[in-house]
Description:
The protein has 197 residues and is an alpha+beta fold. The protein has six helices and ten strands, in the order αβαββαβαβββαβαββ. The strands form two sheets. The chain has an eight-stranded mixed β-sheet, sandwiched between helices. It has a two-stranded antiparallel sheet with strand order 5-6. The two termini are 24 Å apart.
Amino acid sequence: NFIEKFNQPGITLKKMKSPASDIAKLLHDNKIIGLWHNSMEWGPRALGSRSIILNTFDKKVNQSLNDRLNRTEFMPFAPVVLDYKAKEYFPKYDNNVPAAKYMTLTYDTKEQYHELLQATVHVDGTARPQVIEKVDSSLYYEILVEFEKLSDCGALVNTSFNAHEEPILSSPETAVNALVKNRVDFLVMENYLLSNK
Length: 197
């Protein structure tokens, strides 16, 4: 087991008693989290197993995070949204359309939520959400639930856990290397929180 054998100078490792709550607090404090959880996704989108997550409250994060990831061109971010908030944020959302689970459909964002979700709302007022249900990933879902309790926001930025022109992270060592390189502020590996601070 990688975690059991982990011993890297400069990196602290802490087992979280309440992972979803602990992570939500960091997100509320504007921290950028690398999420390494369960098996890697199969398909064109990172959906919480190899994702970078952060709050949606500041559109300037698009530039600052792209800088940290060496993503030089404009690359808009997408939100992961709790299933019971999707219709509120995106009035034309239909829960009978499975493609909305995979960040493949664009919806008009209700104008009153443009500021709350500003890091994920495009210039034309649309967003491309991943609508998540608890059955999809219990930890990922519970992070959003706990974050909503703190912020009254049922969405987070979700972008793939990799730097520009690099593949999505395929080994725990590459995830730790992303932390060392300051791509993220904290790294979550299952129930453990890693930091180089």
